[in-house]
User: Fold this.
Amino acid sequence: MADAPVWSDHVQAVLARAGLKRGGARQRVIELLAREPCALSAVEIEDALRAEGKPTGRASIYRVLDLLVDHGLVERVAVGPGQARFERMHPSGEHHHHLVCDQCGRLVAFDDPALEQAIGDLSERLGVRVEHHDVVLRGACERCE
Amino acid sequence: MADAPVWSDHVQAVLARAGLKRGGARQRVIELLAREPCALSAVEIEDALRAEGKPTGRASIYRVLDLLVDHGLVERVAVGPGQARFERMHPSGEHHHHLVCDQCGRLVAFDDPALEQAIGDLSERLGVRVEHHDVVLRGACERCE
DNA sequence: CCACAAATGAGACTGAGTCTCGGAGTTATT
DNA sequence: AATAACTCCGAGACTCAGTCTCATTTGTGG
Assistant:
C-alpha cells in the first residue's frame, strides 16, 4: 500500500485543479478508497464509514463516486448484475481485471499484457474508439479448485 | 438467422434430457430468444411478449432465463449496472462480445480470436479454472465517432 | 468576515430482480 | 380417458441498489 498516499494526493490535485471545494463526505470516501486496495461496493463504503463512526449520506457517497469516475480517478467494475464496485485507478492508466470465484465469491485481481494488446488491436480493426474496457472472468480460484 | 431453429431444437433437446416438462411461458421465451439475435434484457422480453399478445409473468421470465443460463443455453451479459441482458449461446461454445456506445447506447457485437487466446492462456498462468468470461468495451461506435 | 457557490444528508422514490403460494398445466400409469 | 403426481405458471408483495429533491450546512475568494 506504499502508493496509497500518492493516489490520494493525486486525487486532491485533480479535484483542486477542477475548481472544486473540499467537503467532509468527499474526504472520507477518498480516504477509505486510498486505504482499501480493491473493488468496494457503494454499500460496503456506506457501512464501513458508519462503522468508523463517520456516517455519511448515501447520496453523497454516490455523488463522490460519480465525480471520481468522471475524473478518471476511480474505476467502476461490474463484477455482476445488481452491484457495482469501485476501486482506485492510477494516472498511469495501469490497471487490472478480476476473476470472480463461483464457489467462494472471492475476487482475484490480475493483469495481462497480451490481453491489453488484443483489446488495443481490436479498436483499430473494428473502427471504433474504445475508451474503457471491462474483463471479468468467472470460475474457480486456486484455493477452491 | 439460419441457425435459430437449430438453436431452439437444441434447447428443447437439452431440457427434455434433463427430464423437464414443457410449459407455455418457457416456450414463449425460447421462441423469442430464437428469433432475436442479440442481448435482450428481461424487461424487454416481458414487454415484447406483452406486445405480441402473450403476456407472461415476470417471475416466469426470470425463472426461464435462470434455467437456460444454468444449462448453458443462454448467456448473461452484464453490459452495465442495473440491467442484465441475455442472448442465446451455441453448443459449439462460439460466442461474441460487445461494445457499448457511450453516445447512442448501441450494442456492437464482435469476436476476436486473439482475445480468446489471451484469456485461454491466462487460466493456466493464474492457476485457476476459467468457466466463463465477459468482455465489455465502452467507447464510440463507428457511427458516432 | 461575508456572501455565494458548492457540498451535504434525510428520506422519498424508482426500477430491476426475488419470493411466495395457490392454482393451472403436463405427463406417466393404468 | 381418468387419475395421480408431478412441474410450471402468474399476481403481486417484497427487497435492495441506486437516484432525486430540497432544505441546510460548509468552504473559500474577495
